[in-house]
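Could someone model calcium ion with this protein?
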Amino acid sequence: MTTRAGAFLARGVLGFTLLLAVAAAASGPAGATDAAPPQPKALEAPVVALTRTPTFSERQPAWSPDGKWIAFVGSDSVGVVDLWIISADGASQRRLTDDRFIDGSPTWSPDGARIAFHSAREKSIFQIWALALADSTVAPITREARRAMNPAWSPDGESIAYFGVSSGDEQVWSIPVKGGEARRLTFHPTQSWSAAWSADGKEIAFSGYRNEKTGGSLFIMPRDGEGAACERSRALTKRVDHRWDRFPSWSPDGRWVAFAARNPAGDATNFDIWLVAIDGSVEVRVTEGPASDTEPAWAPDGRRIVFQSDHSGNDDLWILDVSRWTGASRSAR
Ligand SMILES: [Ca+2]
Ligand SMILES: [Ca+2]
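Reply:
Sure, complex below.
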């Protein structure tokens, strides 16, 4: 086990901090694509800064199935990019990889024993790898001729969805963890990526760039793919304000998807965290401000999300209790 300096660990445990989180009133039906974005009302919410390290970046968090750990990508000013895990209370952490390769996008196996990630540790091409937490051994999952990135482990443990470019552009694929042929899941000629499984494993949410008016939007398809004519996928978010919806994460109860969207009123790096009800009927913005708030991931308790934000001037991990929004939206419907 490797840990960072004690001084860092002390800073890693912070109390509640009032951040910039702002509640948005429930928007109108998602089908009303010309509706104005929901107008946020001032409502401060407590969030926890899980890390607060001014010279070290914590990104791409993923909550462990048992709720005790959060895997993330850590990088220093020299450009060393490795995988770490930190306890959900910030009290301890452990470095998982320590090498010159760029490791990214961790995703836990459902039994919590392994973490899949992407890395260009062979032939300088990003592929999906899996690290065993017991002994930190790393084994390949994909062996594509071209890059494979952003893995998402299925709830039944048997498959990993990812985006690959074997077909010439970015599409979502799936591959059996135990070995076998990769299967293409998305077929729209524009890029599709950012796959996220539903908790029951029956569906996959993903980000697609399918309409120049919408920028990126979120879509949902069955686990075995959307069909060659995209006839089995449906839009989840349908806004037309160039939000570039991305990084979906499905709530454990299956009723919400958290995602990051660009704030059209801000600069190109201003992303906020949103929640969308799974039927598309409600969208709620849960952070607002000039920071880049992105890469949300649900806790197994279904009440909290962890996300990455440069709110403090450098990428850190923050935890936000979103139950007030999911609960409020439930009672409003
Ligand atoms: Ca940091
Ligand atoms: Ca923001």
